[in-house]
Structure formats: C-alpha cells, structure tokens
Amino acid sequence: MASPVVLPRQGQSVESCIITSWNKQEGDAVQVGDVLFTYETDKATFEELAKEAGTLLKIFFEADDDVPVLTTVAVIGQPGEDVSAFTPEGAVPAAPEAPQAEEAAAAPVQAAMEPTAAPAQPAQGVSPRARATAERLGVNLAAAVPTGPNGRVIERDVFATREAQPAAQAAPAPAPVAVAEAAPVAQEYTDVKLTNVRRVIAKTMLQSLQQMAQLTHHTSFDATQLNAVRAQLKAAPETLGLPRITVNDLILFAVSRVLKNYPDVNAHFMDDHIRQFKHVNLGVAVDTPRGLLVPTVYAADTKPLATIAQEAKAVITAAQAGSINPDLLTGGTITITNLGTLGIESFTPIINPPQVSILGVGAMVERVRTVNGQLTAYPSIALSLTYDHRAVDGAPASRFLKDLVTALENLTALLTM
Predict the structure, then answer these.
(1) What mean pLDDT do residues 308-336 have?
(2) CA 161, CA 172: separation in Å to the nearest integer?
(3) Would you please indicate which residues are annotated as catalytic (active-site) residues?
(4) What number does CATH give the domain 197-416?
(5) In Å, how far are 216, 218, 367, 381 from 345, measured between CA atoms?
(6) Under a CB-based contact definition with an 8 Å cutoff, are residues 74 and 56 in contact?
(7) From 3.40.50.150, 2.40.50.100, 3.60.120.10, 3.90.380.10, which CATH number describes the 3-86 domain?
(8) pLDDT by residue (tens digit) across 338-389?
(9) What pLDDT, in 10s, does the model give residues 96-122?
(10) So where are the chain's domains?
(11) DSSP character for 241?
(12) Strand locations in 250-297, DSSP E?
C-alpha cells in the first residue's frame, strides 16, 4: 500500500522549509533509513530518512521549492499503485504527453504558414522560487530553458537566462578599418548565491540598525581572578566530573547572575510594550559554516557554572553541525558575542531583535596601571554593551556593565553565592 512522505516540522517556530536536493528519484528502490532528500529552514539543514521500503513512485516538489511543513512531498509504494489521492496543493504538474506523430509532422508546416509569435510561458511549470527570482531580476520566463525534472523551470534556469540575454541582444560590431585599440582586461570575479541563512542575517541586521536607537558603552575588567579560577578548574581532578571550563563560560555565568537584577536590560522591545523576563536566557553567538547563529541557554540564572558550560557546548556544537532544533535559536533575552579568540580587542556589536541588548567580549590583552607608585601589568578584557535606547536609558545600562565588571573581577566570591 502506498505511503506518503511528509515534510516534518522542525520546531514550533518553523512554518515552511526549502527542499535543497533529492537523493532518490522517481522509480528508485528505497530501503528503510535511506536518505530521501535534504531540506533547510532559515537556520539549519536536515535529512529526511525513508520510513517505508518500496519504490519512490512520485515526487511532488523539486529542489528550491519552499514547502509548508506537514505537506506530502512524495509517495513510496509498489510500482503501478495510484498516487493521485496524495497529490498536495501546489505540487509539480505532470509533464505533458508527447504529441502524436501526425501532430509532430504537421507542426513545421503550420509554423511556416503562421506569423512569428512570442514564445509562450513554459507549459511544464515554474518553481515558486524561480518565479520570484525572475521577477526580482526582470527575466522573461518564456525565454528560460527548463532543466528541472519533468521539464520544469527552476532557479538556475533563471540565472542562465539572465546571463544569456545580454549576449543574445548585442549585435556583433563590424571590424574597424583602422587599427583597434587594445580591449580592456576583463575583471575576474565570482558571484556567490545568497543562502537562506545569509538572507535572514542581512534582513535582521539591517532592520536592527534602521529601527533601533542603538548606543554602545565600552569598558574593560581585570581578568586576573578569572584566569586564576579557570586554571584552578582546569587542574581539578577528573573524578569531580567538571566539564572543560572556558573564559566564555565564566563570562556567561557572570552575566546570568548580574542581568537578573536589571529587568530593563533583560527584555524584548515589542513596539507598544516592553516584555521583561523573569529568567535570563543567554543567546550565544556562534560562527558556523552556514553563517551566524545564536542558540540559547535557557534560565541560565538558575543553573550552576558546570551546567551552563555543558549546555552552551551542546547548542554550539549542534549549531556548527547544522542540526540544531530551530526552537533553540529563539527566546534569548541577551546575546553574548565573543570575538576575543580572533584577536579583536573591541568592537560595536549589533542587537539581535527583539532583544534590547548585546554584550561584545574582546581579546585578553596586557595593560599597565600604577600600584603603590609602581607600574604593574595585568590582563584585561574589553566589554562592549550595545543597548536599545528606546527601552533602556544610559544610566541603568551603565550600572549593569559596572556590576558585571565587579562580578568578573570577584569571580571567586560570585561562584560561592
């Protein structure tokens, strides 16, 4: 009996996914556990495994199609089974039947007798993504040569048509009688298609700067005690079962303890009201092969250092692997972005809306100060707090940053609280 293949919902916040590629084609034999296709949300990529054995009878959506979740995308069954009952709305139309021999023979004669007309829209269909791209680039879809399954026009056909149009329209210039000047050297470049993640980052960051009143305060703290605590934890016996604690883990811990005292900073700006949170949900900015992602450690203010470190490592690893649940990329009440490992001493981070603040962490550098009349070197780490002045005034933002510095410089006492 034929069985539908349904596009699963990856998290409650996901309404649709884009199919990126099919590993199986119509007519292929399928075993339980075979990878049927890959698909992506705006944050992560997933593989869909076959849950039934049989033959892939029908594929309803192709690569680059944006498909609502819980939609039937294919059917697995036995050859000859009727799949019409599974056809979803918006599915790829069936390819037209080949013309009869008589019609094919008569076509050239009829074409010769009729005046030349503009080519018609490809009857085989156009993917939604290809249609949107054609509208954006001003490409005539009637000129596109379909290369998708069942003769369907897909996005790559639109790009190919756009590249071919200038060449087709330009008439060859006659050779000049005089000696022509040397042609300019062609510029070499590569056009890189925007991924879904990059589109989301671009849109979110632009909106953040356009719609918020962002201001950044810069300060630094003495990392002497932080280094001492980290060295002590690193040297602890394995029998204690402590995870490998990083500088970033210690900063996350300190933020979780200080921020809960500043509800104005631990908030979301919701246009007509400010939503203040009872707990601190730490968003951790992560550099991944697909772009910047911000997974969340929830209710960090209620968890000990070891748990925060373990959960942060788990979501960071999942984000880098591209397999993180999209729900774990929502709900942060502040974001911590650390560029210190890349040698950046100080920077101005951009807020991740609807949050009202983001904390940038710089590299550890050696600074000099006077102690008892003597110049003394000490390790220093810069902190940069960007906040939305629509929701937070400068004084409470500064007090939060000042208290965070105090906590980090007295980390031993903070860990005992």
Answers:
(1) 93
(2) 20
(3) 389, 393
(4) 3.30.559.10
(5) 15, 11, 12, 8
(6) yes
(7) 2.40.50.100
(8) 999 999 999 999 999 999 999 999 999 999 999 999 999 999 999 999 999 9
(9) 444 544 444 444 445 444 444 444 444
(10) 3-86, 197-416
(11) -
(12) 267-269, 274-276, 282-284, 286-288, 291-293, 296-297
Residue 336, token pair as written in the block: 């911590």
Task: Give all strands of the β-sheet with 35-40 in edge-to-edge order.
Answer: 45-49, 35-40, 16-22, 66-68
Could you give phi then psi for residue 107, rounded to 5 degrees? -60, -50
| Total residues belonging to the chain | 417
Q: Output the pTM of the full model.
A: 0.68
User: Residue 163 is encoded by which pair of tokens?
Assistant: 């590249």
Residue 403's identity, in one-letter code, is D
Radius of gyration of the chain (CA): 29
Residue type, 33: G
Task: Give the pLDDT score at 180.
Answer: 53
Residue % of the chain over a pLDDT of 90: 55
Query: What is the C-alpha separation between 277 and 267, in angstroms, rounded?
Result: 6
How many CA atoms within 13 Å lie on the side-chain side of 47?
Answer: 10
Bridge partner residues of 170 (DSSP): none
